[in-house]
Write a sequence for this structure.
């Protein structure tokens, strides 16, 4: 008589398939986790941007922080960076002063057209502007500087030939051109070696339009 051995039960086919898919899923999940860990170690900044957001140049957050760190980047935040503006005069005022300067007899050596004697800053402060002109002289004799002014305030005039200097002040008139002249002589020994220098400086708080001309009157 043969001995009877207990028979081992084999899992049903459907159960084996379920076990196989579970094993595959576990292996795949483990592989994905391993890949993620490797990527995080190699590119940590990419994951930081993904979960915390990135402030690329041009984005609102980047622009805001840049403006706060550097107020000079935003002119409105610092009005002192705004350029100064020239004073405004009407075209008729400019034409009036230029006509007065050009209507004098003679052929001027130098003619400075009408220009404002001040600028206005972005904070409203008035800044006077000096006018300076240098001319090379070639003849001995008398030279005449004539300065024209329109507006409010006064001017200080310094006219030099070589070592000689003559100073004068003048008052500006509102609505009409005022003028004053300063004469100086150039000696024969100074000819071809001397320059004339004209400096016109408005007094503080003057709001005026300035023009000038330099003439040679002869010996």
């Amino acid at each position: 008589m043969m001995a009877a051995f207990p028979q081992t039960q084999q899992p049903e086919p459907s159960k084996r398939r379920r076990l196989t898919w579970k094993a595959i899923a576990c292996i795949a999940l483990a592989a994905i986790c391993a890949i993620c860990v490797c990527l995080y170690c190699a590119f940590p900044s990419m994951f930081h941007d993904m979960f915390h957001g990135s402030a690329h140049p041009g984005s609102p957050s980047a622009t805001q922080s840049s403006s706060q760190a550097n107020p000079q980047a935003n002119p409105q935040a610092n009005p002192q960076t705004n350029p100064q503006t020239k004073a405004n005069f009407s075209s008729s005022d400019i034409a009036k002063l230029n006509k007065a300067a050009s209507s004098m007899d003679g052929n001027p050596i130098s003619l400075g057209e009408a220009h404002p004697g001040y600028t206005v800053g972005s904070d409203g402060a008035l800044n006077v502007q000096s006018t300076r002109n240098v001319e090379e002289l070639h003849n001995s004799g008398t030279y005449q500087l004539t300065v024209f002014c329109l507006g409010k305030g006064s001017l200080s005039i310094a006219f030099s030939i070589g070592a000689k200097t003559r100073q004068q002040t003048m008052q500006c008139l509102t609505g009409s051109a005022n003028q004053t002249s300063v004469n100086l002589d150039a000696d024969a020994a100074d000819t071809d070696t001397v320059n004339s220098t004209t400096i016109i400086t408005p007094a503080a708080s003057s709001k005026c339009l300035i023009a000038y001309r330099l003439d040679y009157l002869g010996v």
User: Anything to note?
Assistant: Confidence is low (pLDDT under 50) at residues 52-83. The two ends are 162 Å apart (CA to CA).
